[in-house]
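A.,

Following up on our hallway conversation. Structure tokens first:
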């Protein structure tokens, strides 16, 4: 049995919870608007697509005729004057799905607003936040189970342990060791959490009725921000000297190089954020667009061909989900490796 990196379960859980806490506020502030009545617009139109890839205050499962099967989610409001107020999203619509006022607040077009202009903080458990919590619970259960088996000294991996061991070893040997070097063990809990968090949520996002979590820019921004902080907090003297006083560069050119290097500090996490967001969102939009063609053209033939094409693209999306988890972790390890390099070879 191959020797796995030492994994401190508490560290992995702590990192996961930090990701959740950062994302909860970001999701509520950056989520896109959706239809206030939860109704899909003309089938196959842009509203149909956006309704399925954006966040919402309810979890839409399936549509049966004119009936929408949804799960209402908690609307949590912190009113700066009256304190916390908690309601279910179903309370904000009447029997005809028209928005109604509840306790001085209304939920319209996917956004909460006060009818009396009160200052408040929206801490609602939206669809993406609920999906985030579910993924963290699943990740915690899986890897606590795997960690317990190794603590018991199991001689040969089996079951869920045998499935994840090659992936963990791959992250350790081909990503962490290769790009960070002998200091890799310090960053393994973060890299493993990052890889599996993105992978699980990419795959969960492909299931029917699931949330588009990694296609939300607030989530990808949070992941990129954590990488940015870890990279620069752990930056050694050689790393900062290369940025502030690049060796081998003529003195007159140094001010220009300094500006370029400083910009580069921020463009790296931005590229991480946009790459994951664009790849996952684009895949969902393409699939929904192809499916919608049959409804727009009202053609059975187009619908059948579109279904075949969308099936092929869904298979490609599974590959993209794996690749994007790998790429985000790979580049994060490269940036960390550059920062912790002491310059001695």
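Then the amino acids I'd put at each of the 345 positions:
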């Amino acid at each position: 049995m191959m020797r796995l990196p030492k994994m401190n379960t508490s560290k992995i859980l702590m990192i996961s919870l930090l990701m959740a806490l950062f994302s909860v506020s970001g999701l509520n502030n950056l989520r896109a608007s959706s239809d206030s009545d939860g109704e899909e617009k003309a089938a196959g139109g842009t509203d149909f697509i956006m309704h399925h890839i954006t966040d919402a205050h309810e979890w839409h499962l399936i549509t049966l005729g004119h009936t929408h099967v949804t799960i209402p989610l908690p609307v949590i409001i912190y009113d700066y004057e009256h304190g916390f107020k908690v309601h279910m999203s179903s309370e904000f619509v009447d029997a005809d799905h028209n928005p109604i006022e509840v306790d001085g607040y209304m939920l319209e077009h996917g956004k909460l607003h006060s009818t009396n202009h009160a200052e408040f903080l929206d801490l609602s458990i939206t669809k993406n936040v609920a999906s985030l919590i579910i993924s963290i619970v699943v990740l915690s259960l899986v890897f606590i189970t795997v960690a317990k088996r190794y603590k018991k000294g199991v001689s040969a991996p089996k079951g869920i342990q045998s499935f994840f061991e090659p992936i963990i070893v791959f992250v350790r040997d081909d990503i962490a060791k290769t790009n960070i070097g002998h200091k890799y063990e310090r960053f393994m809990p973060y890299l493993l959490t990052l890889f599996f968090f993105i992978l699980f949520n990419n795959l969960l996002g492909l299931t029917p009725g699931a949330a588009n979590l990694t296609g939300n820019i607030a989530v990808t921004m949070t992941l990129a921000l954590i990488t940015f902080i870890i990279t620069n907090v752990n930056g050694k003297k050689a790393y900062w000297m290369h940025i502030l006083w690049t060796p081998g560069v003529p003195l007159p050119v140094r001010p220009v190089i300094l500006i370029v290097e400083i910009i580069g500090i921020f463009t790296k996490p931005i590229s991480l954020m946009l790459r994951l967001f664009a790849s996952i969102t684009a895949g969902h939009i393409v699939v929904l667009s192809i499916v919608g063609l049959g409804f727009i053209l009202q053609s059975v033939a187009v619908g059948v061909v579109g279904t075949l094409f969308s099936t092929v693209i869904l298979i490609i999306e599974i590959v993209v989900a794996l690749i994007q988890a790998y790429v985000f972790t790979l580049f994060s390890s490269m940036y960390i490796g550059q920062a912790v390099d002491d310059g001695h070879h």
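Strands lie at 58-64, 67-72, 74-79, 83-88, 105-108, 111-114, 120-122. Curious whether your intuition agrees with the design.

B.
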